[in-house]
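User: Show me a protein chain along with its predicted structure.
Assistant: Here is one chain, sequence first, then structure tokens.
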Amino acid sequence: MTIRQKFIAVVAVLNVLTIIACATIFWQLKNVEHQYDTTLNASLPLLEALRSLDEDFSLQMSAVQNVLLDVPGAEANFTKVEAHKQQTLKDLQSKADTESGQALITAVINAHADFIKDGEATIAMYNNKKTTEALATYVDKVAKHDTTISEATKELSDAISSSITDVRKQADDVASQAGYVALTIAVISVILGILIGIFVTRIIVNPIRALQQEVSIVATGDLRSQDLPIASKDEVGQLTASFNQMKHMLITLTTSLADNANHLSATAAQLSASTTEVADTSERVSSATRAVTDNMIGTSQAANDSSVAMDETAQAVQRIAESTQLLQQSATDTAAIAHLGGTTIRSAAEQMTTIHSSTQSMTAMIERLIEQSEQIEKITAVIADITDQTNLLALNAAIEAARAGEHGKGFAVVADEVRKLAEQSNASASQISALTTDIQVETRNAGKAMHANLTTVEQGVTIINDAGSAFMDITSAIDAMQNQVEDISAVTEEISAAAEEVAASVNEIATNASNLAEGSSASLEMIEGQNASLQEMQQVAAQLSDRSVELQQSVAQFKN
């Protein structure tokens, strides 16, 4: 697996965990908000209907009492209130969403129906002048409906209170769970941030620093260090293996260059000695030619000696040419290896740039996580506002219950439960807000850690660029050495041509030695031409010696 694939896998896992956790918290908060709204929307109308029924019941009880007291308009008030109460009962029955709630509401409706029946019977008896029977019915039946209706109303109020309590308990559980999830996100983010930093430092920066130090040593010409260990098969491992291979090739090349340089120096010395010997022989030939009549035999022998010496010189020059060609081939191979190392360094630099881009992408994702935490904080603020409004509604309900007196006690209990729920919900919202703040702090810390990792990667990019510069210096030095070898090859070819010319001249001298007496003047001119060629050969030999010294100095820069 490459470095890029490893890095993308770690970032993908972190993003998936973060998205899942944030989605879970967001869904839980939205679910609590929906259940809370649903419960309030269902409970508050029921409480309002119960309060209206209590008021209507009190008015009807007062109307029955006023009828018995012969108060004008009391019966009309009873009938008017009954019409309003029937509408309230219908509304109350339509708001029942469970079987148990429907049964409790039915019990309240039946209790009120019995009360209406007995109340109307009492009024009818009183209107028929049956005052005693009307009073008995009121005392025995109508008055007792107060207790029945109060019990039915209280039972329904207790059911509503139980429903609100269940919602409150569920909200507390969700708030606690959201807090644990938020804390888990913070811990995982910090741990993953630390692990990513260690990961980047271990598999990228440290091996590249070691490689940069080794490249600096090699750039000074010191090839004696041990091979770098290959800890992985990714781009860094491949780069390390290529560097080790290049160093071994440089060691082989420098050893070969040193041997060839020494051989070239020895051959140049031999060539110089041979050239000097040929020059001396030519001088003697020249003297003998001037005295050809006196020393013909000596001249012929000297020509033969010159021929043998020139053959040896030609062979020496041929060996020099072969050594020079081998040296040139070695220099070409070294240049190719150096260029390959430069290409590998550039590939590593491109990979480090890709890692740098991935680190920047991860930093952007952490910033989006901070923004999502801020959205959660806003949702928590909305829940807190809702709890404040609920608390205000509960306070208004308590005031209305106090106005209703004895008949509003049940409603007051419900209002107090609603107020407690609002206070607890507000506390839970505050807790969630505090946890969200902690998440934002931890997330920002993770962001700082990612910025620190980004700086580390940038340092890695700088180091690999420095290594690339060092490889460029090595390549330049090898190219310069290759040019010197090419110059030596050209000089060697010139020497070889000159040696062939001298050998031809010497052979011609040997051939024409028997005719020297007849053509002494022509022989003298040929010998003078030979002397000129020998002087040229001495100059070429001196140049070859200088080139061999320069080559030895270049090779001496590398320490095997």
